[in-house]
């Protein structure tokens, strides 16, 4: 996967990562004890850099690239060029934070990371393990059993498959959506379009939806079968209550990519990758 960074990330054995994590957590406890509790996340990050000295890099840029698309993420704290830590100041660690760190681990093709939260009375910390390297995530099947092939639809599916072959599955679906929307639109316009919501013949609001053309939307998800079934119902509602005429949908789950096309309230083509 084309990744651009200021240095190469080392793949650490579990024993070495745990030794580093032990030291980092103790430094975090020191920072938590000394720094005023009203401080914001960036202050905690800078304090950790001071405590860890030359072993640490903060706000480490990692850029993911495909053709003319690129996006840069910034890792809070990298220690000894291989141990990635995501620093938070929140009421509690949740799945969104775990997913964010997992995304970073997959981008850098490293397996172990740790969340550290300064937002509670005591420092809260939690290991995150990706468990799947890039070569495994690049192996997936494509299900086109509900896909209606034509030039416009196939541009969507072929673009996404190209991304997955390069980046692998498992990354944040927002990244896939941004890349697909940008590549197909050739950066000539944003891929997000604001559409009005119609309820009983009254416009009651609007929301932003990823689009490929003015009336053709798309969605990329990573859901199990139960959640995907409910989401499909929501796509029908989207078609009924907006000016969107067609939705290309790809669900990536369990090593299978399933493609669907939903048009005129009938989702006829799903695409699934796993």
Number of helices: 7
Number of domains: 2
Oligomeric status: single chain
Q: Give the strand content.
A: 25-35%
> Average pLDDT across residues?
89
Distance between the termini: 18 Å
Round the Cα radius of gyration to an integer and report it.
21 Å
**Could you estimate the helical fraction of the residues in percent?**
25-40%
Helix and strand succession? EHHEEEHEEHEHHEEEHEEEE
Low-confidence stretches: 264-274
Overall geometry: globular
What composes the largest sheet?
Answer: 8 strands, mixed
Q: What's the number of extended β-strand segments?
A: 14
Helix/strand structural class: alpha+beta
Describe the protein's topology:
Elements: E1 3-5, H1 14-34, H2 41-52, E2 56-66, E3 69-79, E4 83-88, H3 95-107, E5 112-117, E6 124-129, H4 134-137, E7 141-146, H5 151-167, H6 173-185, E8 192-199, E9 202-213, E10 216-221, H7 225-241, E11 246-252, E12 256-263, E13 266-267, E14 271-273
Parallel strand pairs: 4-5, 7-12, 10-11
Antiparallel strand pairs: 1-2, 2-3, 3-4, 5-6, 8-9, 9-10, 11-12, 12-13, 12-14
Helix pairs in contact: 1-2, 5-6
Write structural notes for this entry.
With 274 residues, the protein is of the alpha+beta class. The chain has two domains: 3-131, no CATH class; 138-273, no CATH class. Helix content is 35%, strand content 35%. It is built from seven helices and 14 strands. Strands 7, 8, 9, 10, 11, 12, 13 and 14 form an eight-stranded mixed beta sheet that branches. The chain has a six-stranded mixed beta sheet with strand order 1-2-3-4-5-6. Strand 3 (69-79) and strand 4 (83-88) form a beta hairpin. Helix 1 (14-34) packs across helix 2 and helix 5 (151-167) crosses helix 6 (173-185). The longest helix is centred in the first third of the chain and has 21 residues, at 14-34. It is globular, with a radius of gyration of 21 Å. The two termini are 18 Å apart.
């Amino acid at each position: 996967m084309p990744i651009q960074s200021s240095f190469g990330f080392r793949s650490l054995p579990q024993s070495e990562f745990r030794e580093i994590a032990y030291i980092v957590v103790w430094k975090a406890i020191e920072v938590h004890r000394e720094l005023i509790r009203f401080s914001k996340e960036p202050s905690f990050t800078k304090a950790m850099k001071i405590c860890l000295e030359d072993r640490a890099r903060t706000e480490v840029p990692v850029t993911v690239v495909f053709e003319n698309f690129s996006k840069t993420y910034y890792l809070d704290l990298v220690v000894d060029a291989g141990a990635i830590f995501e620093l938070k100041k929140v009421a509690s660690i949740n799945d969104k934070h775990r997913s964010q760190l997992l995304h970073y681990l997959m981008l850098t093709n490293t397996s172990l990371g740790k969340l550290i939260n300064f937002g509670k009375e005591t420092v809260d910390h939690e290991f995150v393990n990706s468990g799947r390297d890039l070569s495994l995530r690049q192996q997936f099947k494509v299900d086109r059993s509900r896909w209606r092939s034509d030039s416009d639809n196939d541009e969507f599916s072929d673009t996404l498959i190209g991304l997955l072959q390069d980046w692998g599955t498992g990354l944040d679906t927002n990244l896939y959506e941004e890349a697909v929307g940008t590549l197909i639109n050739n950066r000539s316009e944003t891929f997000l379009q604001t559409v009005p919501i119609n309820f009983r013949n009254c416009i009651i609001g609007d929301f932003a939806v990823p689009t490929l053309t003015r009336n053709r939307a798309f969605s990329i998800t990573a859901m199990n079968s139960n959640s995907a079934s409910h989401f499909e119902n929501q796509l029908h509602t989207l078609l009924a209550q907006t000016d969107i005429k067609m939705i290309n949908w790809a669900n990536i789950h369990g090593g299978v990519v399933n493609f669907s096309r939903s048009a005129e309230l009938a989702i006829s083509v799903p695409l699934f990758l796993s």
